[in-house]
Amino acid sequence: MKLQNQNLYSVLKNEVYWKLFLVAFVLLLTGLQKSYTAANIDSLQSILSNTNDTTILVETLIQISDEYVLYDVDNAIKYAKESYELASKFDDNELVIRSGFTTIKSLMPKGAFDEALDLTKELVSLSREINNKRFESDAHAFAAAIYRRKGNSEMTLKSYDRCRILSDEIGYDLGLAKAQTGYGEYKEREGLYLESFENYNRALEITRSEKSRNRDLEILVLKKIAFTHRYLGDDDKALEQFIEVLTYYESLGDIVRVADLHNNIASVYWDIESDEKAIEYWNLAIDLAKKTNNKDALANAYQGINIYYRFNGKFDIAEEYCLLDLKLRNEMGDIRGLSYSFKNIGRNYQAKGDLVSAKSYLLKGLENAQQLGQQLKIAWMNQQVGRLLNDMNKPLEAIEYILKSAELSKSINDIKGEGASYEDLAQSYALSGQMDKAFESQKKFTDLKTKLLNDKINEETVKMQTIYETQKRDDEIASLEKETLLQNELLTQSELVRNLSLGGVVLLIGFASML
Questions:
Q1: CA pair distance 187, 374, nearest whole angstrom
Q2: Distance in angstroms (rounded) separating the CA atoms of residues 16 and 270
Q3: For 69-123, how does the pLDDT look when each residue is reduced to its tens digit (9 = 90+)?
Q4: Under a CB-based contact definition with an 8 Å cutoff, are residues 428 and 395 in contact?
Q5: pTM of the model
């Protein structure tokens, strides 16, 4: 990790500096970015006022949208659509496609998935008309990302396949990297974490190569890898990578994506039971998302922050955030996010003691997860229903759901989830009087917890060994450099003495000759 990220990580772990950082961040980052971008936009606006050239007008509108998309989604959409409408009136299909891509990028944070998908289909057709496989590949990559958000796993995979095939035909490396990133995310959602790492690493190789280096795509892949580390229970690694990604987007002044990252970091802090930091990050995400009109990040923040209030017994506040989240998910048509919306509403009813309403919403969440076919979500939702049935004193029904959760968690190598399922199973068996099975389940939970701890210790041991060996090598190099420097100094001094000696002899001979 780079030094600047290490410094940032240290600051985030310090309570005093953290409070100051939170207050200053929104004021400075938002203010400075708007000031800097406003100057660029003013300059670009002057170009709009002083040219009638269609190409220049469209290109300028695209640039203005690219500036606004960093901190004002609504204006980004406005100028992107202007560029697309203007380009569509003239016979320059490549310009139409480029302005269309800009429009899709601006629509995504707003959650306008249906509109973005319709436009993507138009761009695929137009790319085929002009036989531009690179544009068609990029259009399929956009389509895949949108299908994923709409919960259509089949079309997500088909679109990434098409992106890969086209990119392979023309040797378009970045298109291949986008496809590999998409495959990695698809497999991650299915719980195939080791396979997802393979895809992500292939994408990283491309984005880091001299031929196709692309820092933006590399950072996106690192963000995806951070999610996978989190699902595998490696919170330290996930937090480290999220902070690296955050630092990059801060350096660009990309406040829209910074809001997203604050949600990600808040979730990790919540997992490691650092509740106060989690709530501060979620509140900051809400502030930034509102300032930038980023509906997607706002829904994610609402979804996270309601958990905090529920666990602190503030059920009315939690319910408000649950309903705000549900409203935004429905507006966006975000099928993937709805599963957790239903789950959170159900958990809130459960905490309030309304177990009948809780069951209704949790079953909706489970049904939604099954429609999506995402194994990790299905496992989690089965576990939630099972826990509720334990609370309802229906342990035999609970066992059915929790066993499914344990089996699915094991199949996707979610050791943390599998362990939690066996802990819940122990309670179900105890409630139903099956004490032998309760003891067996508790033992499995303890074994899995020990395995997680041992894996963590082994990882830390390897990490410390690597640090030690690196430090030792650095010390040896430094020692050699110091020895070489000393030898050079001695050689220089020796040459100086020799030169002085020769000079003295010459002077002595000259003086003797004069005598």
A1: 9
A2: 19
A3: 999 999 999 999 999 999 999 888 999 999 999 999 999 999 999 999 999 999 9
A4: yes
A5: 0.72
